[in-house]
Design brief:
mainly beta, Tachylectin-2, Chain A, 2 domains, 34 strands, 36% strand, globular
Length: 577
């Protein structure tokens, strides 16, 4: 049933000025539908979408619905889903059974009468063709975006665009009020800045209103000051800046700072860089884990916070892998400021997920960021006896307190699952989550290179996810593992061909079609496994900071362990030759 849950999804991406009318009350805060029971918000993408969702829900509710959670839980097996009767505006609640005594709510479904009321109000405002209509818990429209992209708010004459009359983004005029380190700004038709989002994600408005909201979190755990290295090329896109500004005004606190490469950026970067970077194999980097000193590790993912988080500019999530044992393959989170020493973050669960029970195990892990809720996400893959696989995740706002785990991608046969070696990004431009992963093919473990790189999309972090779309790569770059991130206005991917033991680069302009390289990045390497990367800017020149591990017992070198390496590539122009 889980694959059939068709959630009523909230459109959460807004233009930067969407909240300038002081929409800060809890009953006007955008949220995901699985949190609708606490916020009361229902957000529709138009009357036709509302009616379609209502029809889907009605079909779903034709199945068994139980009067209590306990009865529903007793009727299904572990990991199964069931519905419990609702009341009022809620027709039913969706649950997933964890075990015989525990179940977790995963969705709520509005009643048909409530959806009809939403549709009636949308129609009454001549908003049937709108791209987005937002309704509060009283059923009143408090924001809408028409078919031309113009945003309308209460108490404003005409659209926001009409009012601002010539807004431009990221103005770089010394007399304008723009600060070089700002991640986003809006200027009026005369070039004067009327709104800024600083590198700390504090929101500043013209007229003396400074630092509204702002992104919190303990950044002083280490007692080390984070040196400022922000450049203009780290600025977020207009859509990302808008989402972060709305988040600052939402009243949500604390808010995790947004990592640079997990959201779309503003700088236009050439796509002709896939064969531009190389780096020589360095000496290994020693890392201690919760299990052993100087341990073996796999599956690194590195992100950068310009102003630091918990005293570290860079965070890494990785899985220990002593002697290739899945017993230790559990996601752990580290901090570093120099890529020489990686510190296991204290005062939080380490690892974030424990092993087993055998023969089940954890593996591929990574970060994501939700700009609509201000949460940093760590996700990982969980495999059921090499037969089925599921993605789980936990979230945090302060890097110390973490949510319980939830399902990101449902339990699926491993031969068809599009969730191996996952990377997860949110596109503020279209409001979709993009999950990049490998599809194993007809057999597992594969005896030859049969994996395909795929992408699936969803409006909601908890799904449902669309059908996998295969991403073509060059034969040289056909990956066993990959990592995908945003650099400027492009989506980059680092691909590991484990059969040749090297790393290759890919670039996309549309989030789906990638140009991939044929020239390996590593020279003199000892057979690499999964790699991670972030950009390093020097003016208009860019290098890549790489973090990867060797592939233990690789056919090209059976003496290898799973050791950690890090190095920086050569610099190249972001505009091409």
């Amino acid at each position: 049933m889980a694959e059939e849950l068709n959630l009523l999804k909230a459109e959460a991406v807004t233009q930067i000025a969407a909240d300038l009318s002081a929409v800060t009350a809890d009953d006007r805060r955008q949220t995901e539908i699985n949190r609708a029971a606490t916020s009361g918000d229902v957000i529709s993408s138009g009357v036709n979408a509302a009616r379609a969702e209502s029809a889907a829900d009605a079909a779903l509710l034709d199945g068994p619905t139980y009067p209590t959670e306990a009865l529903g839980r007793a009727a299904v097996a572990d990991n199964g889903t069931f519905l419990v009767e609702g009341s009022g505006d809620v027709a039913a609640y969706g649950y997933r059974r964890i075990n015989a005594s525990t179940s977790m709510q995963i969705a709520s479904y509005p009643s048909s009468s409530y959806v009809d009321e939403v549709a009636r109000r949308i129609a009454s405002e001549d908003a049937e063709d709108d791209l987005e209509v937002s309704i509060d818990n009283a059923g009143e429209i408090y924001r809408r975006t028409d078919k031309n992209g113009h945003l309308y708010l209460p108490d404003l004459k005409g659209s926001v665009q009409d009012g601002l009359n010539g807004v431009s983004t990221a103005v770089r005029n010394d007399d304008s009020g723009m600060v070089e380190s700002d991640i986003f700004s809006l200027a009026d038709k005369d070039g004067k800045v009327v709104l800024r989002v600083t590198e700390n994600s504090d929101l500043h408005l013209a007229g003396g209103l400074n630092a509204l909201g702002g992104i919190a979190g303990d950044r002083t755990d280490t007692g080390v000051a984070i040196a400022e290295t922000h450049t203009f090329h780290n600025n977020f896109s207009a859509e990302t800046g808008g989402a972060l500004a709305a988040l600052s005004l939402s009243g949500i606190t604390p808010i995790a700072p947004p990592p640079l490469t997990l959201l779309p950026g503003a700088t236009s970067i050439t796509a002709n860089l896939v064969n531009a970077f190389t780096v020589a194999q360095p000496a290994k980097t020693v890392i201690d884990t919760p299990y052993y000193l100087d341990d073996e590790v796999v599956h690194p993912h590195v992100i950068e916070f310009p102003n630091g988080m918990r005293g570290y500019r860079y965070w890494m999530v990785i899985t220990p892998y002593r002697a290739g044992s899945a017993l230790f393959e559990n996601p752990c989170v580290y901090g570093t400021n120099d890529f020489l020493t990686f510190d296991l973050l204290p005062d939080m669960p380490q690892p974030l997920a424990e092993f087993g029970p055998a023969p089940n195990f954890n593996s591929d892990c990574g970060f994501a960021y939700n700009p609509n809720t201000g949460e940093l996400i760590v996700f990982w893959r969980y495999t059921y006896d090499h037969a089925e696989t599921e993605l789980f995740y936990r979230t945090t706002r302060d890097g110390i307190n973490w949510s319980d785990q939830r399902t990101l991608y449902p339990r699926t046969p491993i031969s068809t699952a599009a969730n191996l070696s996952p990377s997860l990004l949110y596109n503020t431009g279209d409001g979709y989550w993009y999950l990049y992963a490998q599809q194993a093919g007809s057999s597992y473990p594969p005896t030859n290179q049969v994996r395909n790189l795929t992408v699936v999309k969803s409006r909601n972090l908890d799904g449902p996810w669309g059908a996998p779309v295969t991403i073509a790569t060059t034969d040289e770059a056909r990956p066993w593992h990959q990592e995908v991130c945003c650099i400027g206005d492009k989506v980059f991917c680092l691909l590991n061909n484990t059969f040749t033991g090297n790393l290759f680069l890919g670039v996309s302009e549309d989030w789906v079609t990638f140009e991939t390289g044929t020239t390996p990045i590593l020279t003199g390497n000892d057979a690499s496994y999964k790699g991670s990367f972030i950009p390093v800017f020097d003016g208009d020149q860019m290098a890549l900071r790489l973090v990867w591990t060797s592939a233990g017992s690789h056919p090209t070198n059976t003496d290898l362990n799973f050791d950690l390496y890090t190095a920086q590539t050569n610099f190249v122009s972001i505009y091409g030759a």
